[in-house]
Amino acid sequence: MNSISRRQFLAASGLALGSVALAGCGASASKGGSALDSGAGSTAKTKITFCLDYTPNTNHTGIYVAKEKGYYADEGIDIDIVQPAEDTAEAMIGSGQAQLGVSYQDYIANALASDNPLPIQAVAAIIQHNTSGIMSRKEDGITSAKHMEDHVYDTWNMPVEQATIKDVVEADGGDYSKVKMVSVSTDDEVTSLKNKQFDCVWVYEGWAVQNAIVQDFAYNYFSFISIDDKLDFYTPVLAANNDFCKKSPDVVKAFVRATKKGYEYAVKDPDGAAQILCDAVPELDSKLVRQSQSYLKDQYVADAKSWGVIDKDRWATYFKWLNDNKLVNNQLDVNSGWTMDYLEA
Q: Where are the transmembrane segments (predicted)?
């Protein structure tokens, strides 16, 4: 895998919440002690199906570290890492086929605002701030959103995505109607930019921009949060099934505790964490993984007091923006969809 595209997360499923299919991408490992053993002397562990949002990448490093280092096993958890074959992780988690997984604040918004809301909530922030933005060829001089005028933008044809582009272009004094839209199926934005399939694209700085650095590709990039604070939504997050949380709160706490240790390890030893991810998923480009991990080590916690913290006001601000722009089917409770009950200080 050379690049990871947010457009694929959305376009592959259309944010559909229908039938669910699974494709396994990792086996569980059990070792160490058991904080959740079923009885004295028991070695039985609680089985957790954990659904990734997409193919494995450095957003998930802490999960793989916690598994390899035995942090889950130490908590009495036997984790099975899977990825969705057709539907989103939200459908998997909401249906209970996965108890926990990786999601995003905007995905959770869609799940909660649908006519048939899913029982899903964020229980920790995997990355503290929105590290996405617009990348383009350096030669085109697209150094701010206004410069997207008269250039071709690669869209995934989703209302929230296009509303975000409209918002940032107009906030920069540009004319959104002058942005030319195309929809290109790509999982490597750098290659597509080189081939001039489009001029600019929404990417994650932690992967696509690092891929550009690895490939020595001359690029421009600006982040959404550099333009508008209300776009500093949580992406990605650790999400859980609400019913499972109510039924097994101690298991959820134990899972979050082990996951936190995994990400703390990735912060302290990014190269070692990168190696663990590469060993678990050998098809990944090890040079890109290390480059990405070096960047993300400062993003997992950033300015928060510790890994996983979700800020109530920041969460509510983004949900209010979705409501105000009528980007969800039904109005959201701006304080819904998240909890810090399972994250220990």
A: none
Name the 3-class secondary structure at 267.
Answer: helix
The closest of 341, 183, 148, 184 to 257, measured between CA atoms, is: 341
pTM for this prediction: 0.88
**Residue 230 amino acid letter:** K
Per-residue pLDDT of the chain (345 residues; tens, 9 = 90+): 444 444 444 443 333 333 333 333 333 333 333 344 433 344 689 999 999 998 999 999 999 999 999 999 999 999 999 998 766 899 999 999 999 999 999 999 999 999 999 999 999 999 999 999 999 999 999 999 999 999 999 998 888 899 999 999 999 999 999 999 999 988 899 999 999 999 999 999 999 999 999 999 999 999 999 999 999 999 999 999 999 999 999 999 999 999 999 999 999 999 999 999 999 999 999 999 999 999 999 999 999 999 999 999 999 999 999 999 999 999 999 999 999 999 997
Q: Is 21 in contact with 53 (CB distance < 8 Å)? A: no
State the first-to-last Cα distance of the chain, in angstroms, to the nearest integer. 35
Q: Rg of the Cα trace of the chain? A: 20
Contact 119, 339 (CB under 8 A): no
In whole angstroms, what is the distance from residue 272 CA to residue 267 CA?
Answer: 10
> Which pairing describes strands 46-51 and 100-103: parallel, antiparallel, or unpaired?
parallel
Which residues fall within 8 angstroms of residue 129, CB to CB, at 6 or more apart? 225, 232, 299, 302
Spatial separation of the C-alpha atoms in residues 144 and 121, rounded to whole Å: 34
Taking the mean position of all CA atoms in its chain, how far away is CA 29? 24
**CA 73 to chain centroid:** 24
Question: What angle is formed at CA 57 by the lines to CA 144 and CA 301, rounded to 5 degrees?
Answer: 70
* Domains defined along the chain, listed by start: 6-128+233-324 (3.40.190.10), 132-230 (3.40.190.10)
